[in-house]
Amino acid sequence: MNWAQASARVIDALHQPHFPATLIEAIRNVVPFEHTVTFAYCGNRRPIALHSEFPVWKHKVMVEDYQEGPYLLDPFYLQSSQSGDPRLVRLRDMAPDRFYQGEYFRNYYVQTELAEEIGFMLNIEPNVGIVISAMRTSKPFSAHEFRKLGELVPFIGAVGRHNWADLPKQFTQTPQPPETDNLSKIIQHAFCDLGRQILTAREVEVTEYILKGYSAEATARALGISCGTVRIHRRNIYGKLHINSQGELFSRFINAMTEPNN
Q1: Which residues are CB-neighbours of 76 under 8 A, at least 6 positions away?
Q2: Does the pTM exceed 0.85?
Q3: Domain 16-173 is of which CATH architecture?
């Protein structure tokens, strides 16, 4: 099937239940990949899974577990609220500098067993974004393959905005758990000691950057402080929480996300 035929099928599928699968089929017709998931994001609300193609065990990790809270640390989610033209992005190109050494990657993302993830990103409204992820377990996408997929961005953006134009209403009309607090509030709740907050506002900020996978140097640049000050904050954070590693910090965060109040 050539691209003209594949794109025609996508247009015919607009506003039909099989639209997402037809769109993915058209994209795969250009460059193959094993897995895919399409998430819609709206602020801190639980993401809506618009489409996914995973075996059962991987669906639990990539969709169900992800929706419980790890999405808050996902670079795709963090970028989804930035309005702009539709775009294709490699995860590795927008991830923080220590993302692959961070606990989100080592404790959650590594379970996905992916060689690479790339995402088509588009906005329906300024605060409502969609990410169509293409995932490979065998090998990363080559530069040539990435360029070929990049040529599809205008088409995917146009049909995506048209098909999912009512997505903002879905977020308000679809029964969902209460809106998740933002990451800073979750951190404050996670590290509450006997009913009182034990981390200062600055320590909460530093904790947020640690969880996202930023190095001390990158955190310092983002907050406008020195690397030495970041390291002092990190030492104080670990001391107040009676922990010794970033792994323990990540565990506390995930435990807080799974508590009934979150």
Answers
A1: 39, 89, 91, 94, 119, 121, 131, 133
A2: no
A3: 2-Layer Sandwich (3.30)
